[in-house]
């Protein structure tokens, strides 16, 4: 019991902040980068990766679209998708984001 009291007395009020900064730094240095982590598989002229590698933009026109795949297999993940449709009647556009597993 004396040991846990010693730890409590010696801990700094800044310890949680230090832990948060350390975790944030690790996430920032090891974050996703589309230049490094994905390959554009088709429609190269309809795909654009931002200079910092944090944004992948796929464009759809009357003739074609684009596709990409990750270079690694993942057990879990998160996707954020923002789709912008042209104004007017878009009944012929399929607005679907497909995730498939290829062994």
Task: Walk me through the structure.
About 11% of the residues have low confidence. Helices cover 27% and strands 15% of the residues. The chain is globular.
Keywords:
103 residues, alpha+beta, 3 helices, 4 strands, glycosidase, Beta-glucanase-like
Compact summary:
With 103 residues, the chain is α+β, with helices and mostly antiparallel strands. It is built from three helices and four strands.
By DSSP (H or I, 4+ residues per run), the number of helices equals 3
| Helical amount | 25-40%
- What does the main sheet amount to? 2 strands, antiparallel
Strands ordered across the widest β-sheet? 1-4
* Average of the residue pLDDT scores: 74
SSE arrangement, N to C: HHHEEEE
Low-pLDDT residue spans? 4-8, 24-29
> Termini distance?
53 Å
Strand tally, please? Answer: 4
- Broad structural category: alpha+beta
Radius of gyration: 22 Å
As a percent range, the share of strand residues is 5-15%
Per the principal axes of the C-alpha atoms, what is the gross shape?
globular
Task: Set down the secondary structure blueprint.
Elements lengths: L1 H9 L4 H15 L4 H4 E5 L4 E3 L6 E3 L8 E4 L33
Antiparallel strand pairs: 1-4, 2-3
